[in-house]
Amino acid sequence: MMKALRDKERAKEAQGEVVTRSDGTIARKVKRRRRRSEQANQDSPEREKKRLLAKVVIGATLCLFLFLTILFLILMQK
After folding, report:
1. Taking all residues of the chain, what is their mean pLDDT, rounded to a whole number?
2. Which domain holds residue 61?
């Protein structure tokens, strides 16, 4: 497996372009590998708990408001 990785790296280097620097030295210009800039953000478990708690509180508040509204409408009919 290590040999395959080394061979792969050597193949990438062989694809590079030979350039002459301003000081006269010769070098092989190889395309850089960039890091993935769009990695998924890792949320901490504490933050996930806070989000879940907020969702539960909002849901309970909406249910309570709906219940009170229906109760008010029923009582106004009588």
Report:
1. 84
2. 46-78
